[in-house]
Write a structure and sequence with these properties.
Number of strands: 2
CATH topology: Ammonium transporter fold
Number of helices: 15
Largest sheet: 2 strands, antiparallel
Strand content: under 5%
CATH superfamily: Ammonium transporter AmtB like domains
Order of helices and strands: HHHEEHHHHHHHHHHHH
Shape: globular
Length: about 450
C-alpha cells in the first residue's frame, strides 16, 4: 500500500506538471482579423519658405544697380542734353525723385501696387507703412528672399519711372509743380499700373499679359505721359527757331553707359533669384542693347551722312527699353532682332517729332514710348516657353492669342497714362502753375529755381 501511494503521488505530480506547461485555451470568441483599409499617414506640412543667401545677395545688388540708373545714370544722361543754364536743375529732377518716391513707396505706394488685391485694379491699404512687410519671404512674389528685399527692388522701379518723364518738360517747369506732379503721378498712375501688370490679382496679370521688367508699367507709361506733358506744358521759349544743342555730350554718354550697366539689375533682377532665368535676362539685355546701338548708328549714318555719338548713346537706351518686357521670355537671337528693331523704330520716331511739332525736349516719347510699345508687342511675337516654362508662347511659336493680350495691355496702359497725366497737369496748373516765367526761363532753371550754377565760370 505504501508503494502504491508513492506511485500515485508521482503520477499526480507528472499530471500536474503537464497541466502547468500546456498551452492555455481561451473560451472567449475568437477576434476576427482587421480587414479595414490601411490609411496612409498624413504628409508632413510643407516647410516654411526659407531665405536663400545667394538670391538675397543678388536682389540687394540688383536694387543698388537700379538705384544707380536713376542717379547718376539718368541724371547725367538728361543733364548733358540740356543747355548749360539748366544742367543742375535737370540733375535735381532725377536726384530728388529718388528721395521723394522712396518715402512715398514705403508709406503707401508699395501697398497700392503689390498689396492684397481689390477688384483687379489696385492693392489694398493692408501694407501701408510697410505693415506686415518684414524679413520673411512672401511666396506670392519671391519665395527665397526677405519680403523687404522684394519691396526695395520694386521701390527703385517706382523711382525711375516718373524721373523718365522729366525729359519731356525739361528747361521750363516750376520745381514746386514738378514735385507735386511726381508725387501724384506715382500714386495715382504708376501704382495702379504696377498692380495691373505685376500684382497678384491684377487684371492684366490675370489675363496673361507678359511684362518681365517694365515695358508697360515703366516705359509705355512714362513715354505716353511724357507726350501728354509736352502737349499740356507747351514748347520751350524759342523752340524750334532758337538752337538748343546739348551742352555736354560727354556727360550724356557717361550717363548712357551707367544706364547700360545698371539695367542688368533692372532686367536680370526681375527673376527675383540668382538662377537660369536671371542669366538669360542678363545675356539678352546685353545683346539687344548692342544691336540697337548699331542699328541706330547705321540708320542715322545713312540718313544724315555721319554717325553721331549722341545717336549711338540714344540707340543704347532704345535697346534697353525694347528688351525690358521680353527679357525673361526670349532667347539671344530674338533679342538681337528686338534690339535692332528698337533702334530703327526709335530713331524714326525721334525724327518724326520735328514734323509733328510737339516739344519733347529729350525724346522721351520717341525712345521710351515707342521703344516700350515695340518691346511689349515683340514679347507677344517672340516669347517662348522653352525659355520660361511658366510663361506662354508667342505668335511666332504658334500662339496668336498672346499677341492679342499684349495689344490689350499696351492700349490699357496708354489710356490710363495719357488721360491721367492730362488731368493731373491741369489740376496742378490751376493750383500752383506749371511753368516758370519767360524771364526765369531765359535765366535758366539753375539760377531761377535753385540759386546755383552748374559751372563756376
Amino acid at each position: 500500500m505504501p508503494q502504491r501511494g508513492v506511485v500515485n503521488a508521482v503520477i499526480l505530480l507528472i499530471f500536474a506538471s503537464a497541466l502547468l506547461h500546456a498551452p492555455v485555451v481561451s473560451l472567449a470568441q475568437p477576434v476576427p482579423p482587421d480587414l479595414s483599409p490601411v490609411v496612409a499617414a498624413s504628409p508632413p506640412p510643407p516647410a516654411p519658405p526659407k531665405v536663400d543667401s545667394g538670391d538675397t545677395a543678388w536682389m540687394l545688388t540688383s536694387s543698388a544697380l537700379v538705384l544707380l540708373m536713376t542717379a547718376p545714370g539718368l541724371a547725367l544722361f538728361y543733364a548733358g542734353l540740356v543747355r548749360r543754364k539748366n544742367a543742375l536743375g535737370t540733375i535735381m529732377h532725377s536726384f530728388i525723385t529718388l528721395a521723394l518716391i522712396s518715402v512715398q513707396w514705403a508709406l503707401i505706394g508699395y501697398s497700392l501696387a503689390f498689396g492684397p488685391d481689390i477688384g483687379g485694379t489696385i492693392g489694398s491699404l493692408a501694407w501701408v507703412g510697410l505693415h506686415g512687410v518684414g524679413l520673411e519671404p512672401n511666396p506670392e512674389y519671391a519665395a527665397t528672399i526677405p519680403h523687404q528685399a522684394f519691396m526695395v527692388f520694386q521701390m527703385m522701379f517706382a523711382a525711375i519711372t516718373p524721373a523718365l518723364i522729366t525729359g519731356a518738360i525739361a528747361e521750363r517747369m516750376k520745381f514746386s509743380a514738378f514735385l507735386l506732379f511726381t508725387l501724384l503721378w506715382a500714386t495715382l498712375i504708376y501704382d495702379p499700373l504696377a498692380h495691373w501688370v505685376w500684382g497678384v490679382g491684377g487684371w492684366l496679370r490675370t489675363i496673361g499679359a507678359l511684362d518681365f521688367a517694365g515695358g508697360t508699367a515703366v516705359h509705355i507709361s512714362s513715354g505716353v505721359s511724357a507726350l501728354a506733358a509736352a502737349l499740356v506744358v507747351g514748347r520751350r521759349r524759342g523752340y524750334p527757331v532758337e538752337p538748343m544743342p546739348p551742352h555736354n555730350l560727354t556727360m550724356t554718354v557717361t550717363g548712357a553707359a551707367l544706364l547700360w550697366f545698371g539695367w542688368f539689375g533692372f532686367n536680370a533682377g526681375s527673376a527675383t533669384a540668382a538662377n537660369k532665368l536671371a542669366t538669360n535676362a542678363f545675356v539678352v539685355t546685353h545683346l539687344a542693347t548692342a544691336a540697337a546701338a548699331l542699328a541706330w548708328m547705321f540708320v542715322e549714318w545713312g540718313a544724315r551722312g555721319k554717325p553721331t555719338v549722341l545717336g549711338a548713346a540714344s540707340g543704347v537706351v532704345a535697346g534697353l527699353v525694347a528688351i525690358t518686357p521680353a527679357s525673361g521670355y526670349v532667347g539671344p537671337m530674338a533679342a538681337i532682332a528686338i534690339g535692332a528693331g528698337g533702334g530703327i523704330l526709335c530713331f524714326s520716331a525721334c525724327m518724326l517729332k520735328a514734323r509733328l511739332g510737339y516739344d519733347d525736349s529729350l525724346d522721351v516719347v520717341g525712345v521710351h514710348g515707342v521703344g516700350g510699345t515695340w518691346g511689349a508687342l515683340a514679347t507677344g511675337l517672340f516669347a517662348s516657353k522653352a525659355i520660361n516654362p511658366d510663361a506662354a508662347d508667342g505668335l511666332f511659336f504658334g500662339n496668336p492669342h498672346q499677341f492679342v493680350v499684349q495689344v490689350i495691355a499696351v492700349l490699357a496702359c496708354m489710356l490710363l497714362a495719357f488721360v491721367g497725366t492730362v488731368v493731373l497737369l491741369k489740376l496742378i496748373d490751376a493750383l500752383v502753375g506749371l511753368r516758370i516765367s519767360d524771364e526765369e526761363e531765359q535765366i535758366g532753371l539753375d539760377l531761377s529755381q535753385h540759386e546755383e550754377n552748374a559751372y563756376g565760370f
